[in-house]
Every structure is written in C-alpha cells, then in structure tokens.
Design a protein that fits this description.
The structure is a homodimer.
Chain A (H helix, E strand, L loop, with lengths): L5 E8 L8 H16 L5 E9 L9 E9 L2 H8 L3 H6 L10 E7 L2
Antiparallel strand pairs in A: 1-3, 1-4, 2-3
Chain lengths: 107, 107
C-alpha cells in the first residue's frame, strides 16, 4: 500500500479460553465488510498467529485483520455508519475483545 | 504477500514516557535489516500509530514493523544468527520493549 494511506488493524489478543473461528472470519466477516464498506477499502490482509519471540511461546494475537483506506475521512465516513453492524458480527467468530490500531503507512 | 508466507510483526506499545524515532527506524534500522537478512526478506512494511478505537484516544502502538519470509525456516535461519545485532540497534531509536508476533498470511 502507498505511503500516507490509512491502515486500520484489528488485533485479537490471545489468552486462556479465547476462541477464534478463522474460517468464518476470512470468508463471512470479510464478505460483510466488503458489502458494507465497498470501494472505500483499498486493500485487506489477514494473518493467523503462530508464535511469539521465545521458542514455543504462544502468539500475542490469535489473529490480525488489516484494512487500508485512502485517508482518515474515507475510513471514518465508511466505517462509522456501519460500525454497529460490523462489531455485531464479532460474537459469530470470537469471544475476544479486539484492540484497534489506526495508523499511517510509512513504508 | 502470498497465502502461507510468514509475517513477523514487531509492535511497539505506546505509553507514558515512551519514545520512538521514526526517521532512524525507517531509514537506518531498515538498512541494517536489509544488510543482515538480505534476500530472506520478501517484503517489509512500516506504519506509524495515529489513534485507537475511541475518538481522540492514543494509538495502542507507536509504530509497527512487518517483515515477510517465504516460510518459518527462512525466518529462523536468517533472523536467528543476527538477532543480537538487530535487537542491539533498538536503543538507538526507542525505549519501548516491542511485542513480537509470528504469523501466517491467510489473505
């Protein structure tokens, strides 16, 4: 993605008793986002946590999803009105409360 | 990046008194990584934290750097022998102890 674009990361912290359904997330949740946010999304990536720094340690995050927007306004104007519907889908694939990071692409 | 590749994210948590020199990081630290890991790196991205979920809230992470590798072995074989040199550069741009996430690219 290009320098200056907005990257919104949704990070799902790992922990005892935490569940995350990657199949639902990568197919149905992504389809929901695509339908609601449409062209405002300039790119999307998903990764599944494997481990941490120490050998054999658990990944800090079970999963991370990233969405790219042209600028902050494009994110706010598309996500804001749909936030309730998007967040309402979370219980369908996880019991984790995600951490949201809004960032600017540097490289 | 392609499905199945390894994404190593280095996340720098924000907090009181935390400092992060993005200029040094995005130029000198990246050059150090390139010199040490070379062709093992299939891609690299950096983002600078702007905010969190609540309006006006600070970004959970001051910065995040991501490196992509073909597979876990490529990461371990290139990073392992150079870990000390790479981690030794951190005090030159930050006083934050980073969180390391090793993940698999899903989408």
């Amino acid at each position: 993605m290009q320098k200056g674009m907005i990257k919104v990361s949704v990070l799902y912290p790992n922990g005892d008793g935490k569940k995350f359904d990657m199949d639902y997330y990568s197919i149905k949740h992504v389809a929901l986002l695509g339908g609601l946010l449409g062209d405002a999304i300039k790119g999307a990536t998903i990764e599944s946590g494997l481990g941490g720094a120490a050998p054999g340690s658990p990944a800090p995050f079970a999963a991370v999803g990233n969405l790219y927007f042209e600028n902050l306004e494009a994110f706010q104007n598309s996500f804001g009105p749909n936030a309730e519907k998007i967040m309402g889908d979370l219980p369908n694939f996880t019991n984790i409360e995600p951490v949201i990071q809004i960032a600017e692409v540097v490289v």
